[in-house]
Amino acid sequence: MAAGAGEILQLIRSGRATTRIQVLEATGLSRVTVAQRMDALVAAGIVRAAGDAGATGGRRSERFVFDPTDSLVLVAALELGQTLPDAASSRGSQAHSSDTAVLAVVDPHGALLARASLAVDVAAGPEAVLPQLLDGFDDLLAGAGIKPAGIGGVALSVPGPVDPHDHRLSDPPVMPGWGAWPVVEAVRARFDVPVHLENDADAMAYGEFTELGAGRDRRPEPFVLVKVSRFLGAGLVVDGRTYRGTDGGAGDIGHVDVGGDAVCRCGRRGCLAAEAGGTALLRRLGEAGSDVGSLAELRALAERGDALVTAELERAAGLIGRVLAVVVGVLNPADLVVAGELAVPAVIAGIRAGVYAGAQPRATARLRIRAAALGPDAVLVGLARVAIDDRFSAEAVDARLG
Ligand SMILES: [Zn+2]
Fold first, then answer.
1. Distance, CA 402 to ligand 1 centroid (Å)?
2. Could you read off the pLDDT of 12-36 as tens digits, one per residue?
3. Domain 216-372: homologous superfamily in CATH
4. How remote is the CA of residue 254 from the centroid of ligand 1, in Å?
5. Do domains 5-67 and 72-204+380-391 have the same CATH topology?
6. C-alpha 260 – ligand 1 centre gap (Å)
7. How far is the CA of 161 from the centre of ligand 1 (A)?
8. Lowest mean pLDDT among 24-33, 184-193, 212-221
9. Is 115 exposed, middle or buried (0-12, 13-18, 19+ CB in 10 A)?
C-alpha cells in the first residue's frame, strides 16, 4: 500500500484528492509521510498550493494543483495533402507538395503557446521530412523566445499505424518508405528528451478524451473518435488509455473492405477509404461533373446545402457508419466523436444513420454520436498529453524524486 509521491501526484492531477487530508484518507499514509511526499512534489516544481479548499474543523486545508514549471512539449502533426491518385501518376512528386506538418509548443495544461505550419512531402520519405521538422522546431522555439532546455518532451503524429512495442511505423498503407524507420531516434538526436510517435487518429482521440475535449463529462468510459478527412481512421480510448492493438493497427478502419470498385492508395480495391474518404469524394464529385477541388470547397458547398455534395457526403457517411457499427458492437463505447475536415452535420447525421442501421439497439442505447470539440487542435492537445502523462506517470515521478 506504499503510495509514493508519484501515486499522490495522480490523485492530485485527477482531482480525486487535492488536500493533505484527502490524500491521507485516499492513501492511508500517516500525516507525516503525506506531508513529506507532497512537500517533495512542491519542491520539484510539479505541484503548487492554490489557496484554501474551505475550512475543515478550523484546520488549514490547502488545495494543491498540478502545475509543472519545466515541461513544455514540442508537438508535430503530419498530414497528407490533397493528392488525387490519378494526379500522382501524371504529375509525379509535385503532386504531393501539399502535405503539411503543423508544429506547436504546448504547455502542460494543453494551451498552445506557439504554432507554425510547414509544407512537406511525405512521399519523399523520412530522410527528407525529419530534418525539415526538426529545423521547424528550432525556428518555432527561437521565434517564441523559448529555450530548448524548457522542453520536457516531443510528440509526433503520423497518418499510419505505430507499433506500440518498437514505436515505429508499422507497414503504413499510405506512407511508403516510412515503415520501421527510426523516427523517434532521429528526433532524440536533436532533442534529448523522451520522444513519442503516435497515430494521428489515436492522438486526436486522446485529445478529445481529455478534460478539454468532447468526452470530458463521461471519462473514463470507452471512447471512439473517427477522423473523416482525406483518409479515414479511428482512435480508441479504453480504460483511460489509447488502445493500440497488437501492432498498432487498432482503429485502422479505412482499409476495411466495403465491396466497392475504387482502387485505394494502399493498392487494394474496395477499401472504405477509397469509397468514403475525402480524396474519394473529390474524385466521385469530379466524375459527376462537379469542379470542387479541395476539402475546404467541399465543406463550403455542404454548408450551403448543395444537393450533389450533400448526397455524396451522406452516402459516404452511411458507409463509414456501417463499419463503425461493428466497432460499437465490439467496444460498447459511451461516445463516438466525429472529427476531421469533413466533420460537417451531413456527415455526422449519415454516420449516425449508418451506426443505428448496423448495430443492435442495445449497443446504441447509451451511445452519444457528435462532433469533436477541439477542431484541428485535438491532435496537438492529444500529443502533448501523451508526453505529459509519460513524464508525470507515477513511476517516472518516483524515479525522478529518488
Ligand atoms: Zn486501402
1. 49
2. 998 999 999 999 999 999 999 999 9
3. ATPase, nucleotide binding domain (3.30.420.40)
4. 6
5. no
6. 11
7. 13
8. 212-221
9. middle
